[in-house]
Design brief:
By secondary structure, the protein is of the alpha/beta class. The protein has helices at 18-34, 47-51, 63-72, 85-88, 92-103, 125-135, 154-162, 166-173, 189-193, 278-307, and strands at 6-10, 37-44, 77-82, 106-112, 138-142, 146-147, 150-151, 177-184, 198-202, 211-219, 225-233, 244-249, 260-270. Helices cover 36% and strands 27% of the residues.
Length: 308
């Protein structure tokens, strides 16, 4: 294990949203300034799943996604600490001495203003600062980030996605919210009666509200990206059933269908509703496709203007 002194940040980092990204940028800047190693400490599973499972939040990202997103920000030294009941029982000074000082060798610790740690969350930013004086590290408290007049938080993003407001959720995340997983066989209705789709099976815990969305679809096994439109719902026109996530690619699919995809949600088009026939549903899907095509044309035009 490395003994290099670190600039350390600690948190759950669910979703690695705009607030987390700002915190990580502060870590990188301070590490460059002092010639130290930028580092992050996170936990798996989420601490609430251990201490109060009935109150555990649905997560925006898996632990692998979280680590990858932190790496993308430039912090390569990421420690994932297994969160156990034994760890939950540590008092603040024990956690700091064992983990922050002896294991991660922190010279600076950067956390958000609502940071709590230790047995029954008994430690806060003031506790951390006091322990820093005792153990030889400096504590920096980073204020919350606001976007469009609202504080950025994982819980706020969950509420937006639950409501279908994926555009605002994307602003708070600083990237589109995405669902990843395997492409599975559907009921065959689309290919026969409406339009052919890719059916996504995902283990994601937060699913956008039922409805139709403008999306981008990525093949996880290649560099291919398609503009697309995606329906999240129960197919009420065909009698309903379990929730499905069906994506129609705006460009023809050449070759075999991808085995694994990521669907990025850009904007909600409409609610899911029941149509009188498959033909009527197909007509609406084609109108939805037209709206998506217009959206992507405008997006490309804006990108060209910005580049110019």
């Amino acid at each position: 294990m490395s003994t290099a002194r670190t600039v350390l940040t600690i948190g759950n980092f669910d979703g690695v949203h705009a607030g987390h990204r700002h915190l990580l940028r502060c870590v990188l800047e301070l590490a460059r300034e002092h010639g130290l190693t930028p580092a992050a400490l996170t936990f798996d599973p989420h601490p609430t799943k251990v201490v109060a499972p009935d109150r555990a939040p649905r997560l925006l990202s898996t632990i692998d996604e979280r680590v990858a997103l932190i790496h993308e920000q430039g912090v390569k030294d990421v420690t994932v600490l297994p969160f156990t009941r034994e760890l939950a029982m540590l008092f603040p000074h024990e956690f700091v001495e064992r983990i922050v000082v002896n294991q991660l060798h922190a010279r600076f610790v950067l956390v958000g203003s609502n940071f709590h740690f230790g047995h029954k969350k008994s430690g806060n930013v003031d506790t951390l600062a006091e322990l820093g004086q005792r153990f030889g590290f400096e504590t920096h408290v980073i204020p919350a980030v606001c976007k469009r007049g609202r504080a950025v938080s994982s819980s706020a993003i969950r509420k937006l996605i639950d409501a279908g407001d994926v555009a605002m959720a994307g602003r708070l995340l600083e990237r589109p919210y995405a669902l990843s997983g395997e492409v599975v066989h559907g009921h065959g209705i689309g290919s026969k009666q409406t339009v052919p789709t890719l059916n996504l099976k995902t283990a994601a815990e937060v699913i956008p509200a039922k409805g139709v969305y403008i999306t981008c679809t990525r093949d996880l096994d290649s560099a291919t990206v398609w503009e697309s439109i995606t329906n999240v719902g129960n197919r009420p026109t065909f009698g309903g059933g379990e929730l499905s996530i069906e994506t129609f690619l705006l460009a023809p699919l050449h070759g075999p269908a991808p085995a694994r995809i990521s669907v990025e949600f850009l904007r909600r088009v409409r609610e899911e509703r029941t149509f009188e026939s498959a033909a009527a549903l197909k007509e609406q899907i084609l109108r939805d496709v037209g709206r998506a095509q217009t959206f992507f044309r405008r997006l490309k035009a804006c990108s060209k203007q910005a580049a110019g």
